[in-house]
Design goal:
The longest helix is centred in the middle third of the chain and has 40 residues. This protein has 1 helix and no strands. The chain is rod-shaped.
């Protein structure tokens, strides 16, 4: 009887571990696709937007 309960507990641990791994893989895939979408669209790309504020510097005399 003890062996059966031990096997059931081990099985439950393995199921929880597999579920956690599945969620991590899903999150990684979503993150990769989000970054790929950002690179394709140009919005919030890793390079960032170019600052076009020309009034930051004073013109030379």
């Amino acid at each position: 009887m003890f062996t059966y309960e031990l096997q059931q507990a081990l099985h439950a641990d393995l199921v929880r571990e597999a579920d956690t791994q599945r969620l991590l893989n899903l999150a990684r895939t979503a993150r990769k696709s989000r970054f790929a979408l950002g690179r394709r669209s140009g919005a919030h790309a890793p390079e960032g937007r170019v600052n076009t504020e020309h009034d930051r510097f004073v013109t030379a005399a």
